[in-house]
Amino acid sequence: MGKLVLFMHTSLDMYTAGMNGEMNWIHVDQEIFEYVGKRVDETDTALYGRVTFEMMEAYWPTAAEQPGASNHDRHHAAWYKTAKKVVLSRSWKGRKIPNGQVISDNIREEVTALKTSTEKDILIFGSPSSVHTLMAEGLIDSIWVFLNPVIIGKGIPLFSDIREITRLKLDVSHRFASGVICLGYTVQR
Questions:
Q1: Main-chain dihedrals φ then ψ at residue 159, nearest 5 degrees
Q2: Pick from 54, 30, 42: which is nearest to 126 by CA?
């Protein structure tokens, strides 16, 4: 059975984006790409909110073919082409997407069925609104936070409307040369 694993960049004050979705404060570099790429290579399914999926679809299908494409772009684009994509979206109810599915209703049941139907983990990239929904439903099994050394003061929080205390077990701690720190936790149930 697959686990639902969240990958999210945050500020030190635990925002995922600014008030208008700004993410220009997020630091990514080759070291982070390589570290995350090893984890991504172990999976074959990605879960997104609609907005994040639209951003991914606008870039990854042709990223490897662009002039000057980096090794990371070529590598991740190849993974993206074959990965199953799952989109949480009420507004896309009934919509079909290539190599994937849209979940609009019965989120707990549909995501549980998805986890049961795969042996590998399912990665959630970004998508703070979807994360809020999935956390409220108790569906996230692991949280990998990439803590950026910046305080932005206000924005879109990583966690919202938490209904009960969620205990976590630290499994991974990695400091990058840039000062970004990866903290990987298992949700304790």
A1: -115, 140
A2: 54
CB 50 within 8 A of CB 89: yes
**Torsion angle defined by CA atoms of residues 162, 187, 35 and 59, in that order, rounded to the nearest 10 degrees:** -40
Number of domains comprising the chain: 1
pLDDT at 126 over 90: no
Domain that holds residue 178: 4-187
Phi, psi of 32 (to 5 degrees): -70, -45
Q: Is the pLDDT of residue 38 over 90?
A: yes
Q: What is the mean pLDDT of residues 81-107?
A: 95
CATH of residue 67: 3.40.430.10
Distance CA 28, CA 70 (A): 13
Distance CA 133, CA 87 (A): 13
183 - beta bridge partners? 145, 173
Terminal Cα distance for the chain, rounded? 16
